[in-house]
Design a protein that fits this description.
Length: 383
């Protein structure tokens, strides 16, 4: 089939953010888009940018971008039948050994020659990705014009740089900015494992000469890869309520380790995106006040980017607290010790709650939130 992307703008980008099990919400959005589309095979997102768990969803679409409906059905099947054991060793023995190694490290650190690399072992995730993703489909989709580019972001532990590994049409070019690079690569399982390696919880993954961790770390501009790859419009699917402001309340108890860890992870996964969206909106407002001919004459290397933001209408940490009991016994025991099994620890739990009662609740919420804006979504994507 002829390449239809050459010589024209690739158009719309889909940005899928991090958040561990929270990424199930993205699948609800994708199911709604497939439902609204008049052509289920057509991929409305020529540019796919994924970070952390969102990288896995982005790759799932990219591998079957020439049949969007089928790609989303496969993703939905995986997420709707999710079990923690599909992502990390969740059996009592595996969790117990991990806990024992960490306790030994804390008590006898100077005697431990091979310290644990992470709290949990994500070897099952490699098996899951290998089983469900055919990475050869990315080149096929690019050749057929169903996909312009897919970008997977990860953070280098040695360099401290945010690297966007992208597989794309030959017209896409690498880029370099302060602390962030775009590098052409053949996307594979290692890129997804690196991008989704939540710090401390999952082990880093080596790609070429460097070890990489979760792409949300050090990611100062989550929307940037889409713009570098040529997007004129972006759809951002977030993992927290838009413009959420909570009343400050008086508390007496010291925050638990789980509450502190959840707060730290939220700052990694959520804050950078919110700041980048705000920055882009300010740039759009500024550019709208400058006539296009003046921008061109002055050599201003900026262009307005149309944006659609889809965000949960409910707090995902509260939903996680309601379903925390679905976790395997060993994981619950491990998390209970740091206070993650109560309502204040829901944020941390929400990142690790890869169990179908929670993932199905998030899929349903994502679908409902998107269908509630069906006219706006349909018009933006020209479905």
């Amino acid at each position: 089939m002829a390449d239809t992307t050459r010589g024209k703008s690739p158009g719309t980008a889909l940005i899928l953010t991090g958040g561990g099990a929270r990424a199930a919400y993205q699948v609800g959005f994708l199911l709604a888009v497939a439902k609204l589309s008049t052509n289920r095979r057509h991929n409305p997102f020529p540019i796919l940018c994924g970070t952390s768990a969102g990288a896995i969803n982005a790759a799932g679409i990219a591998c079957l971008a020439d049949n969007f409906g089928k790609a989303i059905s496969i993703l939905a099947g995986v997420w709707r039948n999710m079990h923690a054991g599909h992502i990390y060793r969740a059996d009592t023995l595996g969790v117990g050994l991990s806990g024992a190694r960490w306790m030994s490290l804390l008590a006898l650190g100077w005697l431990i020659r091979n310290p644990p690399r992470s709290l949990l072992d994500n070897a099952p995730l490699r098996e899951l990705l290998t089983r469900h993703l055919d990475f050869k489909g990315i080149d096929r989709s690019i050749a057929r014009g169903a996909l312009h580019a897919v970008s997977i972001s990860a953070s280098g532990y040695e360099s401290g740089e945010s690297i966007s590994f992208f597989q794309a049409h030959p017209s896409a070019q690498p880029w370099r900015r302060v602390q962030r690079l775009g590098i052409r690569a053949q996307i594979g399982v290692d890129h997804l494992l690196a991008s989704s390696a939540i710090p401390f919880i999952f082990p880093a993954t080596r790609i070429h000469r460097e070890y990489f961790g979760d792409g949300s770390m050090r990611q100062l501009a989550p929307i940037s890869p889409a713009i570098h790859l040529g997007a004129e419009r972006v759809v951002v699917v977030g993992a927290s309520r838009k413009n959420e402001h909570l009343d400050r309340q008086r508390v007496e108890a010291h925050p638990s380790l789980a509450q502190i860890a959840g707060h730290a992870l939220s700052s990694i996964f959520l804050d950078g995106l919110a700041v980048d969206i705000e920055r882009m909106q300010r740039i759009n407002q500024t550019l709208s006040a400058i006539p296009p001919e003046i921008r061109e004459h002055s050599g201003i290397p900026l262009r307005p980017i149309k944006t659609l933001i889809i965000a949960p209408s409910e707090r995902l940490d509260r939903i996680a607290a309601e379903h925390a009991s679905a976790l395997p016994w060993g994981v619950k025991a491990l998390l209970s010790g740091i206070g993650a099994m109560n309502r204040h620890g829901g944020a941390l739990t929400s990142y690790l709650l890869f169990e179908k009662p929670f993932t199905r609740a998030l899929i349903d919420l994502g679908y409902a939130d998107t269908m509630a804006r069906s006219t706006e979504v349909g018009d933006f994507l020209d479905l």
